[in-house]
Amino acid sequence: MMSQKPIKRVNLHPASCKYLKLGHPWITEDTYTKRFPKDDFFLVGVDEKNRQEIALLIHDPDHKNVKARLWSLNPEDWKKDINFRTQLEERLKNAFARRLDSVIPTERENFYLVNGESDFLPGLLILKLKNQLLIQYYALFWKKIEKELLAIVQSLVSVEEIWIQERNFNQAKAIRSVNGSKNAEFILNEYGLNYQIRINEHYDFGIYTDMCAIRKQMVPYLQKSQSMLNLYSYTGAFSLFGLKHGMTKVVSVDLSSKYLGWLDENLALNPEIKKENHTSMCMPSEKALEKLAAEGTLFETIVCDPPSASSDGSSTSSALKSYEKLLPLMLKVLAKNGTLFAFLNTHQISWNKFEEKLKQIIAASEFNNQLIIGKRFKLSDDCLPLKGFHEGDYLKGFLIEFKHKG
């Protein structure tokens, strides 16, 4: 896979040493990483103070923030020749088996085969989308060993096409197929619902895989509800899910007519759903809420899942800040027996900070002392995060309800 040469030792920042020993898998840029050699794939991280070698790292000098990622804390893995291909194959096999041998493939055609650090495959995500694979690089070193990676993946699972996407910070598509295909369109099924998938037409492909397990967790609440407001609806997965579970009124709000048109396509793919129970509003979420509140419209379920940096027309704001305006308006259209699902999609905000922000907004509203912030909805099943790795625990959801329902 790569030439075996002596692995260079590098001193690590004391904070990096501390967090590595606790299991955190990243070395972010600091004064120490600036002295790392430029061209080495592996490095051994040294706790300079204690004169102790503590970790085998994969070097990622071209990444903007994360300069190395943990491969092993076992000294035996760097005190002898490293059989990286064997280790990589074993980790991929284990990750694939955990999903393919579970109930997940019987419920949906949309799931993770590899979830990066939680599968000890840092910066690597592999999604199975029906009969296609989407491999996502969050660490740039995977490009250096792409040929070997693909050989192992293709030996473990048979699919029609494999796509590779280099995830980046400016949301350029940066996607390509192994066989040279330009794009792919197909229908996949999640929990009995059909969705139109388009690979290589946009940055994302039509459904958010990390939300699948959370949708399943929400079923007991949705089954009690007759109406839903789905804000930032994208292509409508929550809307279709609500309709499937018997809701008689679902309103989807999105700023993009393109995504609402895609939602209409998804509705048409599911003839058992009563489309007359669904309405789209193509406008910013805040304006939609103001309109619904003025009309006196109430919903028993509200789902709010803003992008990490949401743009409503001419302004752009962080998702957390957007709740300052959105949450008081949502509470005005939430029925007294209703449930509000508030999501945040960023690792930069902790669970506690998100919850405290929601409490502050409620306390400053006309609904102070009337609400309970309850159950947490977390990543789980095929994308369960690594314990202690808060960056991997990026998707956060809270259930908000009135104390006295009725």
Q: In a few lines, what is going on in this structure?
A:
The protein has 406 residues and is of the alpha/beta class. It has helices at 14-21, 84-100, 104-107, 146-156, 212-222, 237-244, 257-268, 285-295, 319-332, 351-363; strands spanning 8-11, 26-28, 42-47, 52-59, 66-72, 110-115, 124-129, 132-137, 161-166, 175-177, 184-190, 193-199, 227-231, 249-254, 278-282, 299-304, 309-312, 315-318, 334-345, 371-378, 395-402. It folds into three domains: 8-82, PUA domain (Archaeosine Trna-guanine Transglycosylase, Chain: A, domain 4, Roll), CATH 2.30.130; 85-184, RNA methyltransferase domain (HRMD) like (Transcription Regulator spoIIAA, 2-Layer Sandwich), CATH 3.30.750; 209-402, Vaccinia Virus protein VP39 (Rossmann fold, 3-Layer(aba) Sandwich), CATH 3.40.50.150.
Characterise this structure.
It is a single chain. The chain is of the alpha/beta class and 406 residues long. The chain has three domains: 8-82, Archaeosine Trna-guanine Transglycosylase, Chain: A, domain 4, CATH 2.30.130; 85-184, 2-Layer Sandwich (Transcription Regulator spoIIAA); 209-402, Vaccinia Virus protein VP39 (Rossmann fold), CATH 3.40.50.150. The chain contains ten helices and 21 strands. It has helices at residues 14-21, 84-100, 104-107, 146-156, 212-222, 237-244, 257-268, 285-295, 319-332, 351-363; strands at residues 8-11, 26-28, 42-47, 52-59, 66-72, 110-115, 124-129, 132-137, 161-166, 175-177, 184-190, 193-199, 227-231, 249-254, 278-282, 299-304, 309-312, 315-318, 334-345, 371-378, 395-402. The chain has a seven-stranded mixed sheet with strand order 15-14-13-16-19-21-20, with helices on both faces. Strand 17 and strand 18 form a beta hairpin. The protein starts with 7 loop residues before the first strand and ends with a strand. The model has no long low-confidence stretch (mean pLDDT 94).
